[in-house]
Protein backbone atom coordinates (compact mmCIF):
# COMPACT_ATOMS: atom_id res chain seq x y z
CA UNK A 1 0.00 0.00 0.00
CA UNK A 2 2.91 2.31 0.66
CA UNK A 3 4.03 1.56 -2.90
CA UNK A 4 0.66 2.72 -4.23
CA UNK A 5 0.77 5.89 -2.13
CA UNK A 6 4.30 6.83 -3.16
CA UNK A 7 4.31 5.83 -6.85
CA UNK A 8 3.47 8.88 -8.95
CA UNK A 9 2.27 6.68 -11.83
CA UNK A 10 -0.54 5.25 -9.70
CA UNK A 11 -3.38 7.72 -10.11
CA UNK A 12 -5.97 5.88 -7.97
CA UNK A 13 -6.05 2.76 -5.91
CA UNK A 14 -8.23 1.00 -3.38
CA UNK A 15 -8.21 -2.17 -1.34
CA UNK A 16 -11.21 -4.53 -1.49
CA UNK A 17 -13.47 -1.68 -2.61
CA UNK A 18 -15.47 -3.54 -5.24
CA UNK A 19 -16.90 -6.99 -5.72
CA UNK A 20 -17.64 -9.41 -8.53
CA UNK A 21 -20.37 -12.04 -8.47
CA UNK A 22 -19.24 -15.60 -9.12
CA UNK A 23 -20.88 -19.02 -8.84
CA UNK A 24 -19.11 -21.38 -6.46
CA UNK A 25 -18.37 -24.81 -7.94
CA UNK A 26 -18.73 -26.20 -4.41
CA UNK A 27 -22.29 -25.18 -3.49
CA UNK A 28 -23.44 -23.93 -6.94
CA UNK A 29 -24.65 -20.67 -5.38
CA UNK A 30 -23.70 -17.08 -6.25
CA UNK A 31 -21.19 -15.36 -3.96
CA UNK A 32 -19.38 -12.02 -3.86
CA UNK A 33 -15.66 -11.96 -4.55
CA UNK A 34 -13.70 -8.95 -3.27
CA UNK A 35 -10.40 -8.69 -5.19
CA UNK A 36 -7.45 -7.35 -3.20
CA UNK A 37 -6.80 -4.15 -5.16
CA UNK A 38 -8.08 -1.76 -7.78
CA UNK A 39 -5.30 0.32 -9.38
CA UNK A 40 -5.41 3.02 -12.06
CA UNK A 41 -1.96 3.45 -13.62
CA UNK A 42 -0.46 6.07 -15.95
CA UNK A 43 1.57 3.65 -18.07
CA UNK A 44 2.81 6.24 -20.57
CA UNK A 45 2.07 9.82 -21.46
CA UNK A 46 -1.20 8.94 -23.19
CA UNK A 47 -1.99 5.46 -21.81
CA UNK A 48 -3.94 4.98 -18.57
CA UNK A 49 -4.98 1.46 -17.57
CA UNK A 50 -7.16 0.12 -14.79
CA UNK A 51 -6.35 -3.15 -13.08
CA UNK A 52 -8.01 -5.49 -10.64
CA UNK A 53 -5.28 -7.29 -8.70
CA UNK A 54 -5.44 -10.45 -6.60
CA UNK A 55 -2.45 -11.47 -4.47
CA UNK A 56 -2.08 -15.16 -3.60
CA UNK A 57 0.70 -17.54 -2.59
CA UNK A 58 2.01 -19.31 -5.69
CA UNK A 59 0.96 -22.71 -4.34
CA UNK A 60 -2.70 -21.57 -4.35
CA UNK A 61 -2.58 -20.76 -8.08
CA UNK A 62 -1.88 -24.38 -9.06
CA UNK A 63 -4.00 -27.49 -8.57
CA UNK A 64 -2.84 -29.51 -5.56
CA UNK A 65 -0.92 -32.71 -6.25
CA UNK A 66 -3.27 -35.65 -5.84
CA UNK A 67 -2.07 -38.02 -3.10
CA UNK A 68 -2.55 -41.80 -3.16
CA UNK A 69 -5.50 -41.41 -0.83
CA UNK A 70 -7.70 -38.36 -0.51
CA UNK A 71 -7.00 -36.66 2.79
CA UNK A 72 -9.04 -33.84 4.30
CA UNK A 73 -6.12 -31.51 3.63
CA UNK A 74 -6.05 -32.43 -0.04
CA UNK A 75 -9.83 -31.98 -0.37
CA UNK A 76 -9.65 -28.58 1.35
CA UNK A 77 -6.87 -27.47 -1.05
CA UNK A 78 -8.76 -28.82 -4.08
CA UNK A 79 -11.96 -26.98 -3.06
CA UNK A 80 -10.02 -23.76 -2.46
CA UNK A 81 -8.31 -24.06 -5.85
CA UNK A 82 -11.65 -24.68 -7.62
CA UNK A 83 -13.25 -21.73 -5.81
CA UNK A 84 -10.33 -19.44 -6.71
CA UNK A 85 -10.53 -20.48 -10.36
CA UNK A 86 -14.26 -19.61 -10.43
CA UNK A 87 -13.57 -16.23 -8.78
CA UNK A 88 -10.79 -15.41 -11.21
CA UNK A 89 -12.81 -16.40 -14.29
CA UNK A 90 -15.65 -14.14 -13.12
CA UNK A 91 -13.25 -11.27 -12.38
CA UNK A 92 -11.54 -11.67 -15.76
CA UNK A 93 -14.91 -11.55 -17.56
CA UNK A 94 -16.00 -8.52 -15.52
CA UNK A 95 -12.74 -6.75 -16.33
CA UNK A 96 -13.08 -7.42 -20.06
CA UNK A 97 -16.63 -6.04 -19.99
CA UNK A 98 -15.59 -2.88 -18.08
CA UNK A 99 -12.24 -1.95 -19.66
CA UNK A 100 -10.03 -3.30 -16.87
CA UNK A 101 -7.32 -5.94 -16.80
CA UNK A 102 -7.27 -8.73 -14.21
CA UNK A 103 -3.97 -9.94 -12.75
CA UNK A 104 -3.04 -12.50 -10.10
CA UNK A 105 0.30 -11.77 -8.44
CA UNK A 106 2.29 -14.23 -6.34
CA UNK A 107 5.48 -13.89 -4.36
CA UNK A 108 7.33 -14.54 -7.65
CA UNK A 109 5.91 -11.43 -9.36
CA UNK A 110 6.29 -9.36 -6.21
CA UNK A 111 9.92 -10.40 -5.69
CA UNK A 112 9.32 -11.90 -2.26
CA UNK A 113 11.56 -14.77 -1.16
CA UNK A 114 10.74 -16.96 1.79
CA UNK A 115 13.18 -18.92 3.94
CA UNK A 116 16.36 -17.09 3.00
Identify the strand order in the major beta sheet. Answer: 1-4-5-6
- Domain count: the total is 1
Order of helices and strands: HEEEEEHEH
State which percent range the strand residues make up. Answer: 25-35%
How helical, in percent, are the residues?
A: 25-40%
- SS content category: alpha+beta
**Uncertain residue segments:** none
SS summary, helix count:
3
What profile does the largest beta sheet have? 4 strands, mixed
CA radius of gyration is 17 Å
Overall mean pLDDT score? 92
Distance from first to last alpha carbon: 24 Å
Number of strand elements: 6
Shape: globular
Labels describing this entry:
4-stranded mixed beta sheet; globular; single chain; 3 helices; 116 residues; alpha+beta
Please give a structural write-up:
This protein is α+β, with helices and mostly antiparallel strands. It has one domain. Helices cover 31% and strands 32% of the residues. The chain has 3 helices and 6 strands, in the order αβββββαβα. It has helices at 2-6, 72-98, 107-110, and strands at residues 10-15, 20-23, 30-33, 37-44, 47-55, 100-105. It starts with a helix and ends in a 6-residue tail after the last helix.
Provide a brief overview of the structure:
The protein is of the alpha+beta class and 116 residues long. The protein has three helices and six strands. It has one domain.
Give the SSE map:
Layout: H1 2-6, E1 10-15, E2 20-23, E3 30-33, E4 37-44, E5 47-55, H2 72-98, E6 100-105, H3 107-110
Parallel strand pairs: 5-6
Antiparallel strand pairs: 1-4, 2-3, 4-5
Amino acid sequence: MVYCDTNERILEWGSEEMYVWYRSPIDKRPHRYYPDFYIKVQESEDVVRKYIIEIKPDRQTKPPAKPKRQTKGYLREAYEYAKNQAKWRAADEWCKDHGFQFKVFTEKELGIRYGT
